[in-house]
Design goal:
Strand order of the largest sheet: 1-3-2-4-5
Number of helices: 18
CATH topology of the largest domain: Glycosyltransferase
Helix content: 40-55%
Number of domains: 2
Structural class: alpha+beta
Distance between the termini: 78 Å
Strand content: 5-15%
CATH class of the largest domain: Mainly Alpha
């Protein structure tokens, strides 16, 4: 029997899993709406706006450190009106205030921590604030105290700052329309030239050592990979295909890929794809499964087909919302408050589970006594079946079979661990991406089961997430008289 929660705030009436996670914080959270904005005006207090999402690791950290702390909550409740927003539920608000944060700090991320006037105009913000000063960041309570002090003593400066920042955000949000209008006045550029320019840009910025683009943190860019594959087909040039394959190979070998259960984490915290934040997002897996399926179709490489199938099998088993077949938004980065707890391993545990097969598996997946991440091991593929066959003087097929059985045994053991929470809300756009991935892979990989999954999800979306057809005022047509 569990104890009753000490606190319950207004978020208890929401449906978002992220907001419900905060419903028992001592913070007097409001959801975004007229009640919160009216309360801020009534009290003449600034708004503290916190925007995040259910799978966000640092959102959980800030909750544990600050939003679950009685003293911090008391200070927040006394001097601010606190509002929580699920960015996946309100992408419109997320976009507006993220533009403001980036204008203020030249960076962004989640949790987003913004301070607003009672009218909702932003004047200060950041992302994660720790409970104690560290890494050059002030403690959250220090930020609260300073904002409250400036609100009392320099109100005109805050209002002036908020007005200027709001004008800048509005100007930036209007910029795409102005750009499109300007482009419409330029001489028409042939589509092939645009594709050539985009391809040159991708080839120039490619990371030849690790694959992909950019430094840490490194995000999968599935649509860039798809573009390069298509450009190889269109032009016959080899380099776009080689760059795409190098990136696909690096991601599939890295720790960003779940080598036991399938599916990709959202991004890697390092440049070589080893250490992810472990959340799995629906949209990433939709785009990546499709890219691997396209690569398999183009190259005939069975490994790409394997990654596509395993990713979609993971989604079908772990991210569908029964009954009906639509897909959940994400799986959490944390398990019981510990990042990656479900997914990481100790060498002793691997040896206990696998017995005689452990040395081969350790050599294949970088399992060591010291670990490769905070004293633990994130599985990543460091030797191929062919390399292991040579090293161990065994047939390649035997190596592959032994490793496959080892993965099955480790996954069975992992399934007995506590599992990350799932955000089960159904987002139409993300479901559209996944429906397309299942349908496309069903065609390219010859998997009719994938097509059935796509059909069931599409049927659910069409039945449950469409507004009713507008009523018509037209009078019914009179039947014609029989001759």
């Amino acid at each position: 029997m569990t104890d009753a929660p000490r606190y319950t705030n207004r978020l208890i009436h929401e449906t978002s899993p992220y907001l419900l996670q905060h419903a028992h914080n001592p913070v007097n959270w409001y959801p975004w709406g007229e009640e919160a904005l009216a309360r801020a005006k009534e009290l003449d207090q600034p708004i503290f706006l916190s925007i995040g999402y259910a799978a966000c690791h640092w959102c959980h950290v800030m909750e544990r450190e600050s939003f679950e702390d009685d003293d911090t909550a008391a200070e927040l409740n006394a001097r601010f009106v606190a509002i929580k927003v699920d960015r996946e539920e309100r992408p419109d608000l997320d976009s507006i205030y993220m533009d403001a944060l980036q204008a203020l700090t030249n960076q962004g991320g989640w949790p987003m921590s913004m301070f607003l006037t009672p009218e909702g105009l932003p004047f200060y913000g950041g992302t994660y604030f720790p409970d104690q000063p560290r890494h050059g960041m002030p403690a959250f309570r220090q930020v609260l105290a300073r904002i409250a002090e400036v609100w009392e003593d320099r109100r005109e400066w805050i209002e002036s700052t908020a007005t200027k920042l709001t004008e800048r955000v509005r100007d930036e949000q209007d910029a795409p329309a102005r750009l499109m209008a300007a482009l419409a006045q330029l001489p028409e550029v042939a589509p092939a030239e645009r594709l050539d320019d985009a391809t040159r840009g991708l080839l120039k910025s490619f990371d030849p050592v690790n694959g992909g683009w950019g430094d840490a943190p490194k995000f999968p860019q599935a649509m860039s990979i798809d573009l390069l594959l298509r450009e190889h087909v269109r032009t016959g040039a080899k380099e776009p295909r080689l760059v795409a394959e190098r990136t696909l190979d690096a991601m599939a070998a890295g720790g960003i890929y779940d080598h036991l259960g399938g599916g990709f984490a959202r991004y890697s915290t390092d440049a070589r794809w080893l250490a992810p934040h472990f959340e799995k997002m629906l949209y990433d897996n939709a785009l990546l499964a499709r890219a691997y399926a396209h690569a398999a179709e183009l190259t005939g490489d069975p490994h790409y087909a394997y990654i596509a199938r395993e990713t979609l099998d993971f989604v079908a088993h772990e991210m569908r919302n029964p009954p009906g077949g639509a897909f959940a938004a994400s799986l959490d980065a944390d398990t019981n408050g510990t990042e990656g707890a479900t997914y990481t391993w100790d060498a002793a545990e691997v040896r206990t589970i696998l017995g005689d097969a452990a040395p081969l598996f350790e050599a294949a997946y970088d399992v060591t006594d010291e670990g490769n991440w905070e004293g633990h091991t994130i599985l990543n593929r460091v030797r191929t079946d062919t390399e292991l066959a040579v090293e161990h003087e065994r047939p390649r097929d035997e190596i592959a079979e032994t490793l496959a059985q080892a993965r099955t045994e480790l996954l069975r053991a992992r399934d007995e661990r506590p599992q990350p929470a799932r955000d089960d809300k159904v987002l139409t756009a993300w479901n559209g991406l996944m429906i397309a991935a299942f349908a496309d892979a069903g065609r390219t990989l010859g998997e009719p089961g994938f097509v059935r999954v796509a059909t069931e999800a599409a049927d659910f979306i069409l039945a449950e997430l469409r507004a009713p057809e507008p009523a018509t005022d037209a009078a019914p047509t009179e039947p014609e008289a029989e001759a």
